[in-house]
Batch of 2 targets.
Target 1
Amino acid sequence: MAVAARVNEERYVVGIDFGTLSGRAVVVRVSDGAELGGATHHYPHGVVEDALPGSSRRLPPDWALQVPEDYREVLRTAVPAAVRDAGVDPARVIGVGTDFTSCTMVPTLADGTPLSELEDLRDRPHAYVKLWRHHSAQPQADRINRLAETRGEPWLARYGGLISSEWEFAKGLQVFEEDREVYDRMEHWVELADWIVWQLCGAYVRNACSAGYKGIRQDGTYPGTDFLGELAPGFERFVEDKLDHPIGSLGGRAGTLTAQAAAWTGLPEGIAVAVGNVDAHVTAPAAQAVGPGQMVAIMGTSTCHVMSSDVLREVPGMCGVVDGGIVAGSWGYEAGQSGVGDIFGWFTRTGVPEAYNQEATRRGESLHELLTRLGAEQQVGQHGLVALDWHSGNRSVLVDHELSGMVVGQTLATRPEDVYRALLEATAFGTRMIIETFRDAGVPVEEFVVAGGLAKNQLLMQIYADVIRLPLSVIASPQGPALGSAIHAAVAAGAYSDITLAARSMGRVHAHAYQPDEGRARRYDQLYAEYVALHDHFGRDPGLMRRLRAIRRTALEEEVG
Amino acid sequence: MAVAARVNEERYVVGIDFGTLSGRAVVVRVSDGAELGGATHHYPHGVVEDALPGSSRRLPPDWALQVPEDYREVLRTAVPAAVRDAGVDPARVIGVGTDFTSCTMVPTLADGTPLSELEDLRDRPHAYVKLWRHHSAQPQADRINRLAETRGEPWLARYGGLISSEWEFAKGLQVFEEDREVYDRMEHWVELADWIVWQLCGAYVRNACSAGYKGIRQDGTYPGTDFLGELAPGFERFVEDKLDHPIGSLGGRAGTLTAQAAAWTGLPEGIAVAVGNVDAHVTAPAAQAVGPGQMVAIMGTSTCHVMSSDVLREVPGMCGVVDGGIVAGSWGYEAGQSGVGDIFGWFTRTGVPEAYNQEATRRGESLHELLTRLGAEQQVGQHGLVALDWHSGNRSVLVDHELSGMVVGQTLATRPEDVYRALLEATAFGTRMIIETFRDAGVPVEEFVVAGGLAKNQLLMQIYADVIRLPLSVIASPQGPALGSAIHAAVAAGAYSDITLAARSMGRVHAHAYQPDEGRARRYDQLYAEYVALHDHFGRDPGLMRRLRAIRRTALEEEVG
């Protein structure tokens, strides 16, 4: 009887994580964060890279667009399916929170209508959503960086010295320069993290995280009209005309669910809708890691590191530092490694011989599992190798995408499992380099908390603990971002007074699941010293790798020409 | 009639090449070097690495022995079979010549009986033949080198500054220190190149090539008793008691075929037996490449470079320079690359995924052929890679077997054929480094002549021509060493006055089969500059690679311990 009564009193929140290819909704119990049900909806148009829907005209290289209606479909299908899967009464859902890939941008009218949904603009590529990995605004980014450095713009250091082609200004300048009509008709240049919230509550609130990390908003202001005018005449009013908008704090309430959105989702009209957020950053509270010095690594194809701190410092090579960028009231730091799981995947696809496939099949293992098992059988340093994890360039701390990967120490006795383990270790060394750079800049790192798909590789986790000499905690939810969004929904609904408190009840972590082993750590200190030597030789004075890229480009042009 | 008469006047020679696993006899026409027939005999005992024949006692690591009777079997089986295969009248054979792996050594009695054939010594490992790749005398070699350097021994520079553990002194000192009874009963310490000649003609003649390159014989003398006594008390008389013996010039006659050897081989008693020779060096005349500046590369699992010159210079990192070491009257230079085909083989075994095997099977190609074809489809530099070819250490010009291989420039787009081509190119860069070191030391290199199994890879040959910017000739005989031995037999028999003349008639080469292409050569100049930068960074100051080896050794000891 008491239990039944309690069940009837339970309240729930819905977290929705919008990824690159699909959106996933999770229903979470407010009292303890239990994930009761979930559902995923794949975007019908996926990533638009070849041609616009219904068109045969090829898009240029490095374009990556999306179709806004795909996101609304997630609201209409995945949310009701998740509630059904959870078996809860929708009437007991008190809030909804969201997170999105970033920096993903869309040009809209004043009411939030994407320009791609206007009849006369549906064949204009620049009217569509520019996905985070739309990379064709690199020339614009290069000019932004050069000019900012020349003018000594104070905000540049907050981004480790470099603005990315993925971010709001480079993408916005590309629209301005390549399709002036779309630019002129655009009334807002909107992060999708905020656009989806707008769809839910009918109000446009710009979230502090995106505005800070991707929108160059620092100390309450943006790059000035002088800077913008010098960048491109006519672009002076980009901030005031298209970008600037009232800021909402993370965990704040953007508004309440509209009748329209209630009809889409099957949730009660009027419940709280949380301010939008970014997938990596929203994961920190899901792992109970919003305190100073708790670095959260979301480890998948690449790794994103986020960490809160009481202090503001300029850390060389970080992606950014933003006031309230992870939780309101703290400085949120972000760094990243551009290739991690991608490198392991590349190696298993291209560098492992047939006999290993046969052995893996025989044992019912994946190649990753086989190589991990074989790699785990050896002592630290036994393979005699050290690698640089730059196959996809280096984000932090060198911020150089012309760098490339290498493995040193190969002999005729070197086996695939040796190289695989050396690649795992190289990414751990890359993480240690980031941690030490933060520490050297005066931002302490005390604990390492892992989320993301790679957390399930126990050898990898132990290597990280041994290499970085820190206790390593692992998020206990397989849906970190969606759980994080649900936590934000609970705070927006008033169930908790702030994110830190909500995280304590609703977050899920295996605290200190891995401890460094002193013997292995000492051996890794030796190997890390060699990694640093290679890192500085090839990275700090990157002549050789850049010249190899230049030679390659010339050769490729000749082949095409 | 005239033709038949000519055939009846034709004379023949037999060349016998004693390799690591088998001996091969070839019957060659004296007038034009035509190879009329051949036969191979595999050594029944192969390489003895685990235990002596009939024993279960394990040999220590890095031992590699052989059984002398196996070589006599080649005389008894392969020679008559080759004559039958050629269909010539044995009575028209006028000489026999041989070459052997080197430095391969045997302790004998005064009459040439190997100590391993004495009843009371057959269970003593040190009584057997020590094959060239018996590597357990490294501590002895290290001590020889340290002492020679300390004492400023003048002969050290003739060997690029380093005496190998494979050579006569290190192996002899090992016998002295590890089995004094065998050492004391040994009356000669004999190169197998000379022992096999002794079996044929009943006389012990020490060939100038082995004595010079492997026996530290320079300017007519050996290391002195002072040096030897300081090396090991009691070892003072090693040269005069065991090693020193009259020298025979290459192409000279060691003696005539004994009745016993005539019975074994089916050849006429009394015909000329040439002075012994080494497999790599004997190949030069077979490729018509005995003139100054003609560098012959015998390219297989490793590469051996031999070249004659009018000048004596000290070339850093060469294997050796010997008066009359290739042809009498010239300075013979030798250099080497310790891993070439071995590296390509290692990569195809360990670094190529299943789909490539399937594609190769479908097309009826080997993996090497598939990777070569795919590698040939790209422009120079297109893969964006540069590699160091040190997977088996570096012989010339760094003389450091603690070095290791590496590939720089890998990205997520790097394919197996890219790495394969980069490895081919790395060995070509290694060859260019050797050529430039010779030139810088004042020894010109004008032409590059390739023998050995890798000569059939056309992509590899063209890469070498482009990288070294020299016309590249290719030997036209698949049995270079055996043909070279036959040429020496013809000179020993008096059919030609010297090796140079004999080579002109009997050698076979596709002269200038490959020419460098200026466009590709220019691009390779750029990549070679990067190779040199890596070579000098990792090779001239080899801290990192040596430390990796040390870390690996410690880890392996821990695993065993």
Target 2
Amino acid sequence: MPEDAEGLAEFAYELGLLKRVRRSGWWHAGVSDPESIADHTMRAAQLAALIAAEEGADPARAAFLALWHDSQETRTGDLPHTATAYLAKPDPRQITVDQTQGLPWRSRELVRGAVDEYESRQTLEARCAKDADKLDMLLQAVEYRDAGVQRTDGWIDSARKDLYTETSRRIAEAAVNMSPLSWRDR
Amino acid sequence: MPEDAEGLAEFAYELGLLKRVRRSGWWHAGVSDPESIADHTMRAAQLAALIAAEEGADPARAAFLALWHDSQETRTGDLPHTATAYLAKPDPRQITVDQTQGLPWRSRELVRGAVDEYESRQTLEARCAKDADKLDMLLQAVEYRDAGVQRTDGWIDSARKDLYTETSRRIAEAAVNMSPLSWRDR
Amino acid sequence: MPEDAEGLAEFAYELGLLKRVRRSGWWHAGVSDPESIADHTMRAAQLAALIAAEEGADPARAAFLALWHDSQETRTGDLPHTATAYLAKPDPRQITVDQTQGLPWRSRELVRGAVDEYESRQTLEARCAKDADKLDMLLQAVEYRDAGVQRTDGWIDSARKDLYTETSRRIAEAAVNMSPLSWRDR
Amino acid sequence: MPEDAEGLAEFAYELGLLKRVRRSGWWHAGVSDPESIADHTMRAAQLAALIAAEEGADPARAAFLALWHDSQETRTGDLPHTATAYLAKPDPRQITVDQTQGLPWRSRELVRGAVDEYESRQTLEARCAKDADKLDMLLQAVEYRDAGVQRTDGWIDSARKDLYTETSRRIAEAAVNMSPLSWRDR
Amino acid sequence: MPEDAEGLAEFAYELGLLKRVRRSGWWHAGVSDPESIADHTMRAAQLAALIAAEEGADPARAAFLALWHDSQETRTGDLPHTATAYLAKPDPRQITVDQTQGLPWRSRELVRGAVDEYESRQTLEARCAKDADKLDMLLQAVEYRDAGVQRTDGWIDSARKDLYTETSRRIAEAAVNMSPLSWRDR
Amino acid sequence: MPEDAEGLAEFAYELGLLKRVRRSGWWHAGVSDPESIADHTMRAAQLAALIAAEEGADPARAAFLALWHDSQETRTGDLPHTATAYLAKPDPRQITVDQTQGLPWRSRELVRGAVDEYESRQTLEARCAKDADKLDMLLQAVEYRDAGVQRTDGWIDSARKDLYTETSRRIAEAAVNMSPLSWRDR
């Protein structure tokens, strides 16, 4: 089992890259030093759980799916929206298979299963996780707008489109009409 | 229910602060622009799941506990180790109660339950999450060492002490003897 | 005396941490990479001297008090306003006693005396230094507002409250109604 | 007196620039995001006081001189060492005269007097302040070396040369042979 | 020829400093972490080529002149506008002579010739390069304005003055009336 | 022609993105805040000219080709080496065609011609530019190594492979055996 531990450590080091890789869309919006993939992933996972709780889905499962939803970006980076015209979106499942090759089988199946379920968008938990991905972007756009960034409308609008759940739509509605600092005033 | 959505959005904005707050221990170690709480939380949650999978615990639950383990730091910041001599560690449960006051009850109970379970350290999942908190610190210390930081020994040593699970001890052992870049050579 | 020199060097290295620790309130305001404690301390000390000069107090003494007013934050970090509900404010004098333990007695008494006088707020110099602490925050809030940060009002308002000296009140009044760049136009 | 307040606010805004301007020498040493002038100034002022205390000089005065020693760099930036071959060092007194033009006379004389005394290097306090300027550079060089920067020798060596006071020479000696983290081990 | 190679490598390392040195004017405008000299130089060179193409000048030559127009700042830093009152602008040709001393003669003459031609402003290519220097500043000012910076007017106005070419004047006119993100909407 | 000016401004704004996009390979190497594409491009263009001068090629043309060699990354980002297993490298010529669509024909042909020539690698100038791309990476790797980054060997080794020109091979040889600060000692 020492080899298993090495495989786990190696994978964890690869995941550490997500702390350094920046979300490329924000550069387009004019932010010079934007959040990391990890920053985005944490709140997306938290939001997935909250949405799932309200929607009657399994909160821990929804959060878990969100936790791996961008983990493939260690290998490809965060492809900006404008890239789609020039390259075929890489297959997250294939990358995950390669990333998890050195893991002991329980861990391996765990991560692959999460990516599969998320990408298939069949379960309510996967849809909560996908909504959370978009909602975090919306909230972050409002936060950047509040920090001075002028042209966040495109990000806010695209985040609001095609949300799966009613809860997400309501959070989106509330979020755009509210100060990110309101929690401090209670 | 619009008020519920507002409560959820407000809480999510508060959590966004974890993307900006830095992990204060690394300033002590000499790092000038260290990782955020969110950066740390993401990998801790991922590690919690992997450890739990190997230990026969519930991976999604372990990850879920890790996801909230530092969420109280929106209100107190990340208190450095040296602060313990001068102030009583604030009670995470109390802060969580306040943070979740405006949430609809399902979400509220969900988050409070997670913090309670994590802080009690009674379940195997809570112990996996706690180990993951320490392991991420160890891995990050090695990563900073690899980036040039000379005095990370204290962080590495303290992370290795008092780990609950055998899996975590083995990952720690493997991690200190290995390059953070080895995954790229496969 | 070589041991004295070591004690002085050790204390100076501890103070160096103030160059890295960020002012946590600005994260709340939405600033992603805010000023350091040292940044704040320098201008607070300069302002303390200017206020003292106008108020008929000892400018060098007022500046000197301001120079140490946050020096305890090497050990506790910069506790945000929201932390006050969850922990008792640590005693600056006690921390200073510990920090200066290894200093030769003249230096030790010097620093302890400055922190005592500042915390007691009895002398005019201490009040000028306290006002300078607030004024620098006000000026910085205006500077961040000028850089795009939308919600600085809370910081500006709280800085203007309870200023001890007439000079500080007048500077505050002038500062909020003026461009931070006006000096370049002369 | 409202005009006086405006002059004071205007000067304080100009001084705020020192929080943003970086110490250019560290770019030469390979540091990509180095400390600000304000970071340097705070510890230099603190060191000046400690040196003065040990040397029997006036600590508050020495700190006060150090507080203004680079304040002219709002107008010229921090000229790197390599610039001296290509331009005549600007006169700090002249810049100070211009910077303080709009100040009420007490403040004006205060700042001009400090810069005059510092530049003349005639008083023991001025020499303590000058030594502090160099000592902070030495300590910072060791701190950057500890963070991985390989070629700090030139900065350390030049800082140790031509120190005026015995206390400074001893602190320099102690500092180069010691860990910047030793204070945490007490 | 090994010595030649060493001279070339040495010069290239010196030029690398331009990636770290920040454009000092933006600190004055309130930007806390502004672009590097290299950032500015790249787009200035690209703009010089485009302007030259439209003006019937040699695009590659114009770009080439722009490529070296700030290369002397490795030695002096980027002197802010406010410095001109206090020091004589250093002679770019003299600095270039010193920087290129260790180069083999072809390279040496090449770089010196470019700086000479640029500084003389006699050729159309030199004027296109100078216009490009200003245009990049104007575009960057608009980009910072779009990121929240309030007081960029001075930079925009000064960039528009005294442009040599009609093409540059037209680009300036178009740029101030347009969104920096419009290219994404095509 | 006002429409032409708009097309030119629009393209220039798109190019400005290269100042913000980071070189992704350095994140893999452990650098947390690496250089921009523009930083890299400037020195690559300068190096291309120097190599061309020594190789008897046209220096301005070689620099010009280097100036556009990564300009397509506004749309795709900087794809890391590990991405090649998962997606087909996008065609730079196609992206350039799209980017330059709104340009007046002289500018349009100019940029397209440069990208074509660079990608074909048929001319000596194109080969000098390609070598410069690699050499800048090698120099930057040494610079990061000097700033503490431990695992730069892979980048240095890959940069030295398959250089087209003898001059580049000699510069590479000299650069790895030399201090990036040696120019300051002359």
